[in-house]
Amino acid sequence: MRKLLGLAVLGMVLLPAASAFAADPTDGPTPLQSITSAGTSFLTAVAIAPEQQVKVSAVTGDYLYWQFPATAGQRPELTIDVALPATGRSGDHSWTVEVFDGLRRRQACVGGEQSPVAKTTDTTLQLGCRLRQVRSWAEPWDGDPLPGTYYVRLSSTELPEKDLGLPLDVTLALKSPTGDTGADQGELAAPLVPNNQPGKLLASAAPTTSVEPEEESSFDFSMDWLPDFSSRWVWTVAGGFIAAVTGLIGFSWTRRRRRV
Known about the structure:
With 260 residues, the chain is of the alpha+beta class. The chain has a domain at 46-175: Jelly Rolls, CATH 2.60.120. 17% of the residues lie in helices and 24% in strands. It has two helices and ten strands, in the order αββββββββββα. It has helices at residues 2-22, 231-254; strands at 46-47, 54-59, 64-70, 77-83, 93-100, 109-111, 117-118, 124-131, 148-158, 167-175. The strands form two sheets. The chain has a five-stranded mixed sheet with strand order 1-3-9-5-7, with no helix packed on it. It is elongated and about 105 Å long. Keywords: Membrane, Signal, Transmembrane, Transmembrane helix. This is Peptidase. It comes from Actinoplanes couchii. Residues 177-214 are annotated as: Disordered.
């Protein structure tokens, strides 16, 4: 009886290891869970990843938001299919897809149909947007895409008012191929805007610096009360001087001379 009990315990211990060795080593990574929802604003945008299946049921008139991360060298590309209702529509529907960076700056699409129009008889509509290659650095005045979080907004811009609320299905596909990674010749120390996590507080990334107290001196003469002599002051003083001289000259020309 003790031998049978020992064999049973040994089998329970070795069974998980045997199943792990029996697994096919060529199996790929576990597929990502499909997304079935979308946000209604930038703050509630649903996070998605490349190659992740996104299929959402919505109604006409809704604003749908998603967000995804992008790193330097990638060229994000979006493809959106909208299944419109076959019956119940009374006119044409205009749609648009927009992509914003973390600073809410709208990024230009260099490929894809960004603002198509669905005729009354159309049952499907396809939109697309391919961004420029994400750069590792840029000048402060430049609007090039930088590493960080990007937001996708899908909306219907023009449609008959009576068509608001009709059901539809949205399928979104995101790809992030890599472009020329050596073209930027620079590096960004940190993402422009961290990934948005609704309901969570982000740790402050600002470095803490200690300020040493200044030594007090017995005699402290400060010139802070004097105004800054900028170009505005120079032009004001010069204009006042010219006006005074002009006034004196005009008065000397126009005053009446006394007769002796």
